[in-house]
Design brief:
64% of the residues lie in helices and 0% in strands. By secondary structure, it is mostly helical. The protein starts with 5 loop residues before the first helix and ends in an 8-residue tail after the last helix.
Amino acid sequence: MNDGPPRQREPELKGAADEVKRLSRIARNLPRFPIAHRLCHQLLEHRDGLVVDGMAEWWLDDIAEVVDSRTTDLEKANLTDLLENCVREIHRLARERNQPATTTDEARQALTAATDFVHRPLPPIPRQRPRSQTGTPTRRLRRRTRGGRPTD
């Protein structure tokens, strides 16, 4: 890292912070990708039964363009975000118009499943246990009993 004045280091620190955000988003959303992928297909399959326009229509179009072309971890994480934004927009539109968000039972079931997914608590990111800096317990024991004799 640059050891210059704080103003010169700001771009470096911002870049590092952006990388941490990107990696944590991938870690949070990547395990959810298979479910999000299936739910996107269900929404698109029953798209005619969804009451959408404007932004909700745009989100569905965006999902339709990219749903099957996700290859990198970041792209897979982004699909989960697209699904969440689409579902929120569909419900916002229904609230504003004071009407149901769907017109068919199949679309209602697909939207309900997607809504449950969006509102499901995120899985925690696993944390690693602190590890000993001096080796495994067996190695520590061997060091204490060199040649079969305790060194204490």
